[in-house]
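Collaboration report, partner site 2.

Our partner group contributed sequences for two proteins of shared interest, and the home lab folded both. The records are reproduced in the order in which they were received, starting with the first partner submission.
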Amino acid sequence: MHHHGYLWVGPKQLFDEEALRRPPHPQPPSSGSRPELVRRYRDVVVAFPVSDLPPIETAHWLMKPRTSVRGTWQEPQAAAGWLRERLTEYAPRFTPGLPADGTCLTTLVDSAAQRVGWGGDVSLGYYLERPMFLSLALVTCSPNRAAADLACPVT
């Protein structure tokens, strides 16, 4: 078992486009479906696997391009250390009112280390200045508990 780190920063408006953050349904629309539904399905089939936009389900990061992986670690503490570094890096840009103090950060990072240690995933999101959004994820791989059928993107 190992863990991958993912990071995305982008416009909150793009993050809110939930349809772009879901993998395509396994069954395409029927031939009698509305043209806009067929077009939308085709767009998602093409865009989802190559987009670095965070998926709705954390485990679906494993379906994204391998270039989306920001780091790979065997040990949960090392993965959580990466998370701590990113949170510290972006904390000055958090919108007012978000906790960025040391105690909160330590609790959050310790919790993340425990979760990936037993094979879980971690997904965090924060509003940044301007209408931007930060998405951070640690995803357990080989296998992932939520999606054991998904292959590791880095082999």
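Second partner submission, folded after the first:
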Amino acid sequence: MEQSITVDIDAPASRVWAILSDAERWPEWTETVRSVTLHDGVLRLGATATIDQPRLPTVRWTVTRFTEGHEFTWESGGPGARTVAHHRVEGTGPGRCRLRLSVSQSGVVGSLVGRLYRGLTDRYLAIEAAGLKARAESAG
């Protein structure tokens, strides 16, 4: 089960990427994240992070896909559950870009959790996309 949101942003993809990839500062622009700790201080392929969010358990994520300036995917999981979160920025014209955020749940437990948290996940994706858009469009 995948849930996603796509939003157009009136800011260059490089600006949006700079904000998005500075994960430890996410709490500054979205209320859906209390803290992000990058364990080696940088977002890159193989990096791990712990994210604390309201109404959700604190989870450790591993970056499994990373293209500098464009996208990253991180995954978390346990017995019977796997969560994949994908973040993508692509330029759509001079000074404009498109952001796509998605979350998918799989496994017996993950699918059940995904259904139970569907509404919360949709709200969090919308809040995160709107927060990033506002931050990018108000920057410099």
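Feedback sent to the partner group on the second submission included the following. The mean pLDDT is 94. Helices lie at 13-21, 108-116, 118-138.
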